[in-house]
Here is the input.
Amino acid sequence: MIDRSIRFDGTLYCDASCRVATRVGTITRYPLTAKQSFVKVRSQTKFGNEVNSQLSTLNSMTRTLTLLGTGTSMGVPMIGCDCDVCRSGNPRNQRTRTGVFVEAPEGNFLIDTPPELRIQLIREHVHRVDAVVYTHAHADHILGLDDLRIFGYKRKAPVPLYCEANVEESLRSVFSYAFIPPEQKTHQHSVPRLEFRPISVQPFELLGMTIRPFRIWHGGTPVLAYRLGNVAFCTDCKLIPDESWPLLQDLDVLILDCLWDDPHPTHLNVAEALEVVERVKPRQTYFTHVSHKLEYEATNARLPDGVELAYDGLQIPFTP
Here is the structure.
């Protein structure tokens, strides 16, 4: 559970994502954005106005990260599979390919462009994307790139793509039509308007916040994980090198790769992911990139407190 609480006169007040404990005043919920609600405290005591003021300040500092997809490369349900999870009526067992939508202080950006990107953005009522940050260039993380066309048109400017050199090379190869010279474009809607911004494991500024990339390994494939304030996103992970562990300290939320129970050469399984959790001790962990072998309710029932399977549409508040 994320602790974003305020204490006055021995009384605890906190936002609507936390359990609320109070001894004075009345509590009502009111919408702050389309994706978020907080607790408003009304009190006749001298502390009431101060509490409301502090909650307003807290809201102005808080943004939302939405998990667009939480499934493995084949998605769930998987084509041709009649297992209980693939036939489940529980929407939290229906997992599109992995991606993230981040509301930053000065705009919105994506982490990766999964194949279902158009469907995911419509589902989440996203109207604006100002940039994309890539983890790596496997198909399930890049094949939605063409869905960025609408945003270049709306922006009347290219959408920046932040990635390592090897990812740029793959994107230029797979989507060669998207990077043709301007004079070869038949009309303004024919191809996406994109431009590359090279990154490495060094921190960089994006839309009013600091992004801190760090290296993880997906078998033999180098992947960038990202720390965004008090949240870390680590998809497609088998190994965390020594130099990356410090970026996983003092987290409110860890979003971590976890494929299934059995060993896998390029992904963490449940036991390995729990070893990471035990080492870094985040306040809350969500497992992502989940296969059809992990049923949502049954798996959560056997996971320790503070660890759950993520699900498509999960919204996580964070402080940039």
Notes: DSSP finds seven helices and 18 strands in the chain. The chain has two domains: 5-60, 64-318. The helical segments are 48-61, 117-123, 139-142, 149-155, 165-174, 270-280, 296-302. The CA atoms of residues 31 and 37 lie 5 Å apart.
